[in-house]
Amino acid sequence: MKKRLLIVDDSPFIRRMLSDWVKEEEDIEICGVATNGEEAVKLVNELKPDFMTLDVEMPVKDGLSALEQIMKVNPLPILMVSSVTVKGAEQTLRALELGAVDFVTKPQGGNSLRFIEAKEDLLAKLRAVKDAKFGSKPTARVVRSVPRGTCDKVVLIASSTGGPRAVMSLFQALPESFPAPILVVQHMPVGFTTSFAKRLNELSAIPTREAVQGDKIEPGQALLAPGGFHLVCEPNGTVSLNEKPSIHGVRPAADYMFQSGAKCFGSKCLGVVLTGMGRDGAQGAVEIRQMGGVVLGESEATCVVYGMPKAAKDAGGIDAEFPLDEIAQAIVANLSGRLKHAS
Asked: Which of 11, 55, 102, 187 is catalytic?
């Protein structure tokens, strides 16, 4: 059965382009088109679409206002369409906090050629969003205890679709004085990771910022891979950034971080694979385990998209799976030596 899509965008060009692209999809049909947030709320009530795209910046009622109203009255999976600006990034992160599943970017000024180049990325995200789980904001139980004594482990976290909300929830649950370094790869374009790192730093007791070339991997510090750059662990205890080709269609890619972490830290490496589409991180998770490290996966029950954790599990790269609200506890238990390997 075809899933019914509502398209909401202020730009006539983007509305037309989205409509043309979606017509090629066998399992999606367009049930309506709106030009502003007020129309969007009305059509969601009338048409009851299965999922929708929603422009962030629109007249009459903007995307955030419409999203908040829709999620309260008629919640459904939503893919945000955002401009690549500082304001656009901050608004998009707020949209993800409010319940949007994922986002795609449109070039500033509506550059049609660049938007056409984004066709495959947009259609892939539409396919993921139409089948995504969604609902209330994920919450994780805050962990109060921290491991006693010194900790020489490194925590590496990978996430994609649904990941920003999951990572924010996880960071809020981790205890103060967290004893290990944390490195994060979240699939996001250039410009958005700066705002995301800032938001994580505001929400969490763990100092968090976007990584820069040569940053030291230090206990109690979280570094986020910047959009457009792979993050690699170096033997001297620092990180390096590079612009090598995308793998799995993404840059940054978790596999680069996981594989380099496995080589540098061996059994001291703790990998975490959260929600996301695709298989990025699967090979790296296998290599972490081969070197004696441990990899935790988010269970299907709480994943927005059970893609990356499933791929890692199927490849033999997961020691144990946990729902999102238990992962912070599982991380602390591993750092304390209470959780090593589980079936």
From this structure: 187
Residue 150 pLDDT grade (very low, low, confident, very high; cuts 50, 70, 90): low
d(CA 88, CA 258): 30
C-alpha angle 144/208/182, rounded to 5°?
70
Distance between CA atoms of 185 and 173, rounded to whole angstroms?
19
Q: Among this protein's residues, is 145 annotated catalytic?
A: no
pLDDT over 80 (residue 84): no
Alpha helices in the chain (DSSP H): 12-22, 37-47, 63-73, 86-98, 112-117, 119-130, 163-173, 192-203, 254-265, 282-290, 308-314, 324-335
Looking at the fold, whether 166 and 203 belong to one and the same domain comes out as yes
Same domain, 84 and 117: yes
Q: Give the burial class of 119: count Cβ atoms within 10 A of its Cβ; 0-12 exposed, 13-18 middle, 19 or more buried.
A: middle
Across the beta sheet with 78-83, the strand order is 28-34, 3-8, 51-55, 78-83, 102-106
**Whether residues 92 and 175 fall in one domain:** no
Q: How many domains does the chain have?
A: 2
**Among residues 159, 160, 169, 299, which one is catalytic?**
160
Domain membership flag for residue 140: no
Contact 135, 304 (CB under 8 A): no
Give the pLDDT confidence of 231-243 residue by residue, as tens digits.
Answer: 999 999 999 999 9
Cis upstream peptide for 252 (omega within 30°): yes
* Catalytic residue from among 169, 280, 299, 319: 280
Active site residue 112: no
Q: Mean pLDDT over residues 27-40, rounded? A: 94
Q: What is the mean pLDDT of the chain?
A: 89
248 is catalytic: no
Domain boundary among 97, 115, 130: 130
Are residue 109 and residue 170 in the same domain, yes or no? Answer: no
Question: What pLDDT, on a 0 to 100 scale, did the predictor assign at position 115?
Answer: 61
Written as six digits, the tokens of 149 are 């004594």
CA nearest 147: which of 336, 327, 330, 334? 336
Structural domain of 9: 3-130
